[in-house]
Design a protein that fits this description.
The protein is mainly alpha-helical. The protein has one domain. It is about 65% helix and about 0% strand. It is built from three helices and no strands. Helix 2 packs antiparallel against helix 3. It is elongated. The termini are far apart.
């Protein structure tokens, strides 16, 4: 189950580390493969369900990326 689906009150207890991010990326890969397969079979309802999950995962990853400091923007003792 994606960390995205963890209730808000428990989400702060979930540590976002490289392993968590990698699992989400792997899940997204699988979701995309399923979406393509269902599209090829003409099964739109299943596509939509997986597209919603993929969208939620992507929004979560984007939120994490925005909250993370960019490389090179961290303040050092020399820059103060």
């Amino acid at each position: 189950m994606s960390v995205v689906f963890v209730p808000e009150k428990l989400r702060s207890k979930v540590e976002v580390n490289q392993e968590t991010l990698q699992r989400l990326l792997e899940e997204n890969d699988q979701l995309i493969r399923c979406i393509v397969e269902y599209q090829n079979k003409g099964r739109a309802a299943e596509c939509v369900q997986h597209q919603h999950t993929l969208h939620r995962n992507l929004i979560y990853l984007a939120t994490i990326a925005e909250a993370s400091p960019s490389p090179g923007t961290e303040k050092t003792a020399d820059s103060v």
